[in-house]
């Protein structure tokens, strides 16, 4: 069942066409990774989904409700964390967390709040003016995860967090997923997306250029293979092989996933003494599209 | 659906009150203290009818009218009439400033900082933030109106009856509400908080100027100014309530337009165009001094233009004033040993001092900008380059000094060009020019003071309080017959009033040395302290 659905979202800022028809679907209990280079339109999409910006055209619903017209109802069941959190300088972190909870109309679950504060190692008694970027981020994360939301919308939420805190964040996302909640996670950190997400959507210049389950997408990419063989190999007659390096009897190359079978049949005849294979990473996938944007094929 | 737009307004009001738990009381107490304190002193200082009547004669001339507003009931100058004449317009002006600062703080700045986004992502209405800001302002001004009214009435001065006192309070309150509404509107139009503050101040300044011009030349013109409306209530003399009602209606309409614009625009967007910037730094913004100047260029120029216009307006009134004194024979009898010219000159020195205070505002802003940069973590980026602490603060001091020369110069130019043109011969261009420029070393002392607080890294609001005190001494010093001990605390009192008094080099030198000393203290302190983020 889809929790969030966007169809053909476009957004113009004056002459700038920030979005050119974005389609997205997040299903219940799913963690959706939303990735793309800077300025691709991630935040703009998210702000439309939050009913903060009005789409120029297109339709988006969350929990089956219109994101613009029924924003208030939707917001009762979602939690949002932006990538750059600014807070009220003369309130303490604890006060801000309570304020957010109150705004949500939820009863404050003190135990949950304390637990999260503990896990994120936040000092809630300090004034927000004295928090570092990472600590302000933690305040927003604690308030988000303290809320009993059905959908979490997170826009590069870990910027400024140290690796330890990043791990705490990942645990929180996985816990939410275990409880059947849905997450839309926009991120730069591909390893994070790989660890957490079932499905990803890649956006570039205001368009979704790829989306699907991580497994599906891997088919679109290349596996790296390192081989040692008894006999000489020649790849000239094979297609789908890239970046061949040879060192003595060791070969390293990349194979298009759909050609993997063909290539393996050929190399097995040469007497394989050693084989290593690295699965395609999201980074490869991302880089392939990114390079395309940066100026054609390499 | 409509109700949804305003959801959680109450909670957001509580947030604003919590954030401003010190700020709002300080403003309110400041206004109450000055207003009720002044009225109480009037009672003792000008107890007899004759004393007051003499004051009325002294203050009834175009120059003073331009500065402090029209006097009503001058032929029967009661304490109440005196209060409304001497205090009301200037208090309204400062209330307008308070509205601008507070409303932008809770609307456009809040949006710029991304906090409105956080709130909008929560179950809250689209218009709740603006509505809560306006409601808190309305509440604040209601409290101000009631406490001022009751406070003035409770002094038990016969001419300050309950109706008049409540009207006086209402005049303060409604002005605050009006400028809160207009600022809310400008916060929709402009895309940045700077832009919103600039446009709002422009309206305040223009409003005051139009009133000044109208009060001196043609009353109808004053009705184009919100200050003109409110002063038209003729507090303590005729006690008209309808101007208050009218201003309230206009405020409500403006607020409704602001809310409408808020509802149809995107977050972070404005209606006025913004320009794109340069791709590369121009030569002069590649040095830190150049960059600091460049960042403040627009602000400095805008202030200079405004101050120039003020100077020119008051300069152009000098001619009328001279004629006025010349025509009134009785005047010469009352002020036996003074002629029209020296009366005019007295006004010149007063205006010069007030213009100097006005010119000091952008000067303190120029140096206090450093704290803002530091808070945004931009300072450390620069200090991490080969830039010494001395040079860093030194550059801000330098920018402040340059600003002081520009703003005072603009004011002096406006006053002297317009003044010398209309007075013809009796007062020279240079006399008027120097009347303002002589304050230069005193403004440097203010720079030094601000530098000390930059060095401390704390309490950088104190120079503002001190400037407020300096202003009160200039404006109310004579009126309230302040003792010399109090007046001497203000540096501006140690500046000779040109052209009534002579220029003394030694005085300017001493002030400059004090200024330099304070700057050095500031530099030494800054060298020693932590740069915080
Ligand atoms: N308020 C705005 N006015 C004009 N252009 C904007 C505005 N907000 C975003 N953009 C433009 O829209 C594009 C997408 O931006 P954004 O959604 O913030 O990207 P991302 O979050 O993926 O880095 C960028 O080119 C950005 O410059
Ligand atoms: Mg973004």
Task: Explain what the structure shows.
- The complex is a heterodimer of chains A (298) and B (533).
- By secondary structure, chain A is α/β, with parallel strands linked by helices.
- Chain A contains ten helices and 14 strands.
- Chain A is elongated and about 70 Å long.
- Chain B is mainly alpha-helical and 533 residues long.
- Chain B has two domains: 9-271, no CATH class; 284-533, no CATH class.
- Chain B contains 24 helices and no strands.
- The longest helix of chain B is centred in the middle third of the chain and has 40 residues, at 288-327.
- The chains are: A alpha/beta (298), B mainly alpha (533).
- The interface between A and B is medium-sized, with 34 and 26 residues.
- The structure holds adenosine-5'-diphosphate and magnesium ion.
- The site of magnesium ion has 4 residues of chain A, from helix 1.
- Chain A: This is ABC-2 type transport system ATP-binding protein.
- Chain A: Keywords: ATP-binding, Nucleotide-binding, Transport.
Question: What would you say about this model in short?
Answer:
The complex is a heterodimer of chains A (298) and B (533). By secondary structure, chain A is of the alpha/beta class.
* Main beta-sheet annotation of chain B: none
* SSE pattern of chain B: HHHHHHHHHHHHHHHHHHHHHHHH
User: Which structural class fits the helix and strand makeup of chain B?
Assistant: mainly alpha
The distinct ligands, each listed once, are: adenosine-5'-diphosphate, magnesium ion
The amount of helix of chain A comes to: 25-40%
Strand order of the largest sheet of chain A: 6-7-8-3-9-10
Give the averaged pLDDT of chain A, no decimals.
88
Our count of helices of chain B gives 24
CATH architecture of the largest domain in chain A: 3-Layer(aba) Sandwich
Low-confidence stretches of chain B: none
- Give the overall form of chain B: globular
Count of all domains of chain B? 2
The oligomerization state is: heterodimer
Q: Kindly give the count of domains of chain A.
A: 2
CATH-derived topology of the largest domain in chain A: Rossmann fold
Estimate the strand proportion of chain B: under 5%
Number of strands of chain A: 14
Protein name (chain A): ABC-2 type transport system ATP-binding protein
Domain ABC transporter (chain A): 4-230
GO molecular function, one term (chain A): ATP hydrolysis activity
Keywords (chain A): ATP-binding, Nucleotide-binding, Transport
């Amino acid at each position: 069942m889809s929790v969030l659905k966007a169809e053909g979202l476009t957004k113009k800022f004056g002459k700038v066409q920030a979005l050119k028809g974005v389609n997205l679907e997040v299903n219940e209990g799913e963690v959706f990774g939303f990735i793309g280079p800077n300025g691709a339109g991630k935040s703009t999409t998210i702000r439309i989904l939050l009913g903060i910006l009005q789409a120029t055209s297109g339709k988006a619903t969350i929990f089956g409700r219109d994101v613009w017209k029924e924003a208030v109802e939707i917001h009762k069941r979602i939690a949002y964390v932006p990538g750059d959190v600014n807070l009220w300088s003369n309130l303490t972190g604890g006060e801000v967390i309570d304020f957010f909870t109150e705004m949500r109309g939820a009863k404050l679950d003190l135990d949950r709040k304390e637990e999260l504060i503990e896990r994120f190692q936040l000092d809630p008694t300090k004034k927000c003016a004295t928090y570092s970027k990472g600590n302000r981020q933690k305040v927003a994360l604690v308030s988000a995860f303290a809320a009993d939301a059905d959908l979490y919308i997170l826009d590069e939420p870990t910027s400024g967090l140290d690796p330890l805190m990043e791990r705490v964040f990942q645990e929180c996302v996985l816990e939410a997923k275990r409880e059947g909640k849905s997450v839309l996670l926009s991120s730069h950190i591909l390893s994070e997306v790989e660890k957490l997400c079932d499905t990803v959507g890649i956006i570039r210049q205001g368009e979704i250029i790829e989306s699907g389950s991580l497994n599906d997408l891997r088919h679109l990419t290349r596996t790296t293979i390192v081989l040692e063989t008894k006999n000489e190999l020649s790849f000239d007659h094979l297609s789908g092989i890239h970046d061949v390096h040879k060192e003595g009897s060791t070969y390293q190359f990349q194979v298009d996933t759909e050609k993997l079978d063909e290539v393996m049949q050929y190399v097995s005849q040469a007497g394989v003494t050693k084989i290593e294979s690295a699965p395609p990473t999201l980074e490869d996938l991302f880089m392939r599209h990114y390079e395309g944007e940066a100026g054609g094929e390499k | 659906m409509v109700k949804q737009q305003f959801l959680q307004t109450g909670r957001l009001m509580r947030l604003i009150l919590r954030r401003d738990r010190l700020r709002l009381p300080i403003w309110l107490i400041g206004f109450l203290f000055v207003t009720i304190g002044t009225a109480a002193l009037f009672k003792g200082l000008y107890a007899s009818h004759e004393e007051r009547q003499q004051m009325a004669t002294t203050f009834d001339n175009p120059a003073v009218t331009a500065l402090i507003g029209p006097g009503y009931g001058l032929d029967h100058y009661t304490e109440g009439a005196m209060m409304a004449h001497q205090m009301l317009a200037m208090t309204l002006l400062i209330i307008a400033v308070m509205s601008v600062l507070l409303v932008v703080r809770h609307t456009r700045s809040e949006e710029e900082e991304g906090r409105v986004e956080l709130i909008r992502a929560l179950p809250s209405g689209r218009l709740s933030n603006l509505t809560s800001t306006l409601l808190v302002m309305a509440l604040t001004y209601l409290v101000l109106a009631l406490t001022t009214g009751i406070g003035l009435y409770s002094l038990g001065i016969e001419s300050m009856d309950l109706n008049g006192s409540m009207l006086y309070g209402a005049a303060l309150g409604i002005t605050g509400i009006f400028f809160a509404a207009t600022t809310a509107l400008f916060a929709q139009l402009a895309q940045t908080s700077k832009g919103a503050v600039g446009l709002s101040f422009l309206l305040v300044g223009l409003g005051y100027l139009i009133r000044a011009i109208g009060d001196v030349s043609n009353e109808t013109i004053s009705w184009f100014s919100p200050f003109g409306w409110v002063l038209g209530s003729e507090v303590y003399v005729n006690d008209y309530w309808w101007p208050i009602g009218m201003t309230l209606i206009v405020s409500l309409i403006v607020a409704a337009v602001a809310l409408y614009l808020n509802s149809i625009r995107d977050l972070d967007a404005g209606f006025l165009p913004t320009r794109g910037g340069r791709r590369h730094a121009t030569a002069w913004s590649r040095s830190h001094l150049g960059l600091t100047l460049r960042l403040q260029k627009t602000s400095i120029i805008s202030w200079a233009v405004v101050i120039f216009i003020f100077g020119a307006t008051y300069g152009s009134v000098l001619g009328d004033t001279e004629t006025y004194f010349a025509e009134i024979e009785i005047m010469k009898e009352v002020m036996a040993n003074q002629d029209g010219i020296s009366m005019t000159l007295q006004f010149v020195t007063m205006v010069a001092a007030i213009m100097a205070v006005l010119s000091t505002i952008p000067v303190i802003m120029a140096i206090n900008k450093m704290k803002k940069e530091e808070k945004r973590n931009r300072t450390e980026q620069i200090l991490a380059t080969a830039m010494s602490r001395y040079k860093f603060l030194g550059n801000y001091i330098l920018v402040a000094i340059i600003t002081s020369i520009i703003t005072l110069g603009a004011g002096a130019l406006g006053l002297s060009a317009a003044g010398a043109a209309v007075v013809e011969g009796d007062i020279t261009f240079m006399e008027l020019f120097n009347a303002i420029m002589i304050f230069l070393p005193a403004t440097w002392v203010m720079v030094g003071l601000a530098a000390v607080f930059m060095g401390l890294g704390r309490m950088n609001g104190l120079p503002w309080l001190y400037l407020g005190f300096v202003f009160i001494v200039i404006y109310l010093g004579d009126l309230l017959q302040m003792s010399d001990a109090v007046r001497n605390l203000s540096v501006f009192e140690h500046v000779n009033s040109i052209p009534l008094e002579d220029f003394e080099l030694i005085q300017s030198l001493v002030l400059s040395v004090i200024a330099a000393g304070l700057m050095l203290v500031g530099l030494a302190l800054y060298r020693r302290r932590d740069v915080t983020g």
